[in-house]
Write a structure and sequence with these properties.
The structure holds two protein chains of two kinds. Helices cover about 40% and strands about 15% of the residues of chain A. Chain A is an alpha/beta fold. Chain A folds into three domains: about 5-170, Rossmann fold (3-Layer(aba) Sandwich); about 190-365, Rossmann fold (3-Layer(aba) Sandwich); about 380-550, Thiamin diphosphate (ThDP)-binding fold, Pyr/PP domains (Rossmann fold). The longest helix of chain A is centred in the middle third of the chain and has 21 residues, at about 345-365. Chain A starts with a strand and ends in a 33-residue tail after the last strand. Chain B is about 25% helix and about 40% strand. In chain B, strands 5, 6, 7, 8 and 9 form a five-stranded antiparallel sheet that branches. In chain B, strands 2-3-1-4 form a four-stranded antiparallel sheet, covered by helices on one side. The longest helix of chain B has 12 residues, at about 130-140. Chain B is elongated. Classes of the chains: A alpha/beta, B alpha+beta. The interface between A and B is large, with 41 and 37 residues.
Chain lengths: ~575, ~180
């Protein structure tokens, strides 16, 4: 089968074949041929207002569904604007494919109008990238891009296509196979190692599951729950793994790390066995690495061999797809009776009961702060109210900073793919565009986009996209008038010298939303909160709710940089008496 | 410590950039890097010497192996291997020391590739440390100018190149261009 068509149409055909139903982008000079094809193509193109947000929206789409998200930008500034989103997807292992236009191949290297070395610039921002200068290479590159993005450890792949390729006419011969001889995907996991893992699990007295984004990427929540059912192991979820274990599950403790819970950090420190599943021992989780989980043997399961042993040498390394590894492990655990491991089983059973008792004590001793105030809205109060409306079912997106940490601490996620945040890169302005992608992908879902007043102002242009598409996103601004997390560090570590963190100007939310044709409101009193949130949720269209919260609240617990994770600061420092004069 | 890595990579645009970019991105210092085609013109072999903490050595290899254009990455510091380098040295020397210079070059197995009244150009191959000594010795006789090739290495035991098989593409090609 071969049909004569333009490169631009071939591109659209390849995308459609990969199952792309919608993409996010911004047109420009060199992508004109492609946009001409999109004019009457089945693929829905969502016009964003800045290319960075096209990448973030593609990420939101991918994070909400597991499918590859697609974004598109023109050459030069269009492509360079994508880079933050590409790195964001790289850091969080999110499968996206970015299509960029490039100047005509003859002009490459001549400093042509809107020329940038996209291929060079995006090399470290992507899992792999392509520069297509010949029409015959185009279909292969597109299908390879989707394959690389979505297999193994997922990630962003960029395909840069010159304008002459998009314009050229050629016979479209559908690609039937992909051959990447150097691309190794490890899926199965070494059976011997999995057996060793099972043995360690049965012998351990204080086991703990440390599960992360890999569980969500591998769609392994069910296998994780089965593992927990078989072993009654307590579970912590990293920021990226939230939702992989339902928050309400009795074995779920909470999130560990810099702003993790007391119980989770103490459990990490006290465990004699860490079952690390799809995690990368990130510095925000481990604190001072040398003091991390000092008593624990480590079983580390990850699909990326480079993550295994990168930060902490495991006792049992297992390179494989965590879904397959867990189902093999569960099978072994079912087949091997619990009495099988050597040693005194009664002592072990007693130790396990003691471990659970200890964890419950930790949980009870220092739960997350959920205090409220009668005069002001505390940020924790805001998150608790959003949680109440969500009931563990809504999609919640966030930027980076204080609001992100409070949301992660206090909002329940009873399914995977509900919590969408910029974890590794920590990009401000991520919440709103990623909510656009998520809502496009899952129109039936209630979507909250939570941002601080800083991050929201980075994403304001996308209010137009929200309005254009009529997306019923509930845009919540946790407005404390500051770049809260930076202010928190200045307060705690820089003698409260608040340098360039005060955001003294914020637009009137009602007028701002009104200018885009939807409803908005500002509230500042705790008694207004529940009703205002309800109004927002009940509104059939978008809603912008600007919530003025206590300005000087800090996120606790907090593990200061360089400390061990059991050395948490649990609350604000006691006021120091200032000598008179 | 110095780690000698031998890579086989696809001869594709940008492949070299991916390797060097990875090294600088991860903070590994490149001591030397050589690259040329293999018997198969679609592949290149690269020898890289990096200065890296010994605990990081496995990590460097794993990161290299993740590059899609890299077909094989071997740590030659761990297996029997030969490491050689070429140096081209130009020396200006006095009439009196010409004989001595030639004698010294001979000791290092050097070959004179150009001779003039002002001095010589000499090529020597050998283990990189040996070449350092050669340059030091020559410097005692006069002003020298040196070009070194960087290390070339080959493992003494062959390791089979394991290539991934092709995979079928997903989805069905549209019989007709899809339109609304």
């Amino acid at each position: 089968m071969s049909t004569l068509m333009s490169g631009a149409r071939m591109l659209a055909e390849c995308l459609a074949r990969e199952g792309v139903d919608c993409m996010f982008g911004y047109p420009g000079g060199v992508t004109l041929p492609f946009y001409d094809v999109l004019y009457d193509h089945q693929i829905r193109h969502i016009l964003v207002r800045h290319e960075e947000n096209a990448a973030f929206a593609a990420e939101g789409y991918a994070r909400a569904t597991g499918k590859v998200g697609v974004c598109c930008a023109t050459s030069g500034p269009g492509a360079t604007n994508l880079t933050t989103g590409l790195v964001d997807a790289m850091m969080d292992s999110i499968p996206i494919v970015a299509i960029t236009g490039q100047v005509t191949s003859k002009l490459i290297g001549s400093d042509a109008f809107q020329e940038a070395d996209t291929f060079g610039i995006t090399r470290p921002c992507t899992k792999h990238n392509y520069l297509v200068k010949r029409l015959e290479d185009l279909p292969q590159a597109i299908h390879e891009a989707f394959y690389v993005a979505s297999t193994g450890r997922p990630g962003p792949v960029l395909v840069d296509i010159t304008k002459d390729v998009l314009q050229a006419q050629g016979h479209y011969v559908p690609v039937t196979s992909i051959h990447l001889p150097g691309y190794k995907v490890f899926t199965e996991g070494h059976t011997g190692q999995i057996r060793r893992a099972a043995q360690l699990i049965q012998e351990s007295e204080r086991p703990l599951v440390y599960a992360g984004g890999g569980i969500i990427a591998a769609d392994a929540s069910e296998e994780l729950r089965e593992f927990v059912r078989l072993t009654d192991t307590p579970v912590v979820n990293t920021l990226m793994g939230l939702g992989s274990m339902p928050t309400e599950h009795p074995n779920f403790i909470s999130m560990p790390g810099m702003h993790g819970s007391y119980a989770a950090n103490m459990a990490m420190t006290g465990a004699d066995l860490l079952i690390a599943l799809g995690v990368r021992f990130d510095d925000r989780v481990t604190g001072r690495l040398a003091a991390f989980a000092p008593h624990a043997k480590i079983i580390h399961v990850d699909i990326d061999p480079a993550e295994v042993g990168k930060n902490r040498n495991p006792d049992v390394p297992i390179v494989g797809d965590v879904k397959r590894v867990l189902s093999k492990l569960n099978k072994i655990l079912v087949e091997t009776p619990a009495e099988a491991p050597p040693g005194n089983n009664e002592t072990r059973a007693a130790a396990r009961r003691g471990w659970w008792h200890q964890i419950r004590e930790w949980k009870a001793a220092h739960p997350y702060d959920t205090s409220t105030s009668e005069s002001e809205i505390k940020p924790q109060h805001l998150m608790a109210e959003i949680d109440r409306l969500s009931g563990g079912q809504a999609i919640v997106t966030s930027d980076v900073g204080q609001h992100q940490m409070w949301a992660a601490q206090l909002i329940r996620f009873n399914e995977p793919r509900l919590w969408i945040n910029s974890g590794g890169l920590g990009s401000m302005g991520f919440g709103l565009p990623s909510a656009i992608g998520a809502q496009m992908a899952r129109p039936e879902k209630l979507v909250f986009s939570i941002s601080g007043d800083g991050g929201f102002q980075m994403a304001i242009p996308e209010l137009a996209t929200v309005a254009n598409q009529g997306l019923p996103i509930k845009i919540i601004v946790m407005n404390n008038g500051y770049l809260g997390m930076v202010r928190q560090w200045q307060t705690l570590f820089y003698n409260d010298r608040l340098s360039s963190v005060e955001l003294s100007c914020f637009p009137d939310a009602e007028k701002l939303a009104g200018a885009y044709g939807f409803k908005g409101r500002t509230i500042s009193k705790p008694w207004e909160l529940a009703a205002a949130l309800k109004e927002a949720v009940d509104e059939p269209g978008p809603y912008l709710l600007n919530v003025k919260v206590t300005p000087f609240e800090c996120v606790y617990p907090m593990v200061p940089a360089g400390s061990a994770i059991n050395e948490m600061v649990l609350g604000p420092p006691q006021p120091v008496a200032v000598p008179a004069d | 410590m110095q780690q000698v890595i031998s890579l086989i990579l696809e001869n594709k645009p940008g492949a070299l950039m991916r390797v060097t970019g990875l090294l600088s991105q991860r903070g590994y210092n490149i001591e030397s890097l050589t690259v040329a085609r293999t018997l198969d013109p679609e592949l290149s072999r690269m020898t890289i010497v990096v200065d890296v903490d010994s605990l990081q050595r496995a990590q460097v290899i794993k990161q290299m192996n993740k590059l899609i254009n890299v077909l094989q990455a071997n740590d030659l510091s761990e297996v029997p291997a030969v490491v050689r380098e070429l140096v081209l040295l130009r020396i200006r020397t006095t009439q009196e020391s010409r004989t001595a210079v030639l004698k010294e070059a001979e000791i290092f197995g050097g070959r004179v590739v150009d001779s003039s009244s002002e001095g010589f150009a000499i090529e020597v191959t050998g283990a990189p440390e040996k070449l350092g000594e050669f340059v030091d010795v020559m410097s005692a006789y006069g002003e020298v100018d040196v070009t070194r090739s960087g290390a070339l290495a080959i493992a003494l035991d062959s390791k089979k190149l394991r290539l991934q098989p092709p995979v079928p593409t997903v989805g069905q090609p549209h019989a007709q261009p899809a339109q609304k």
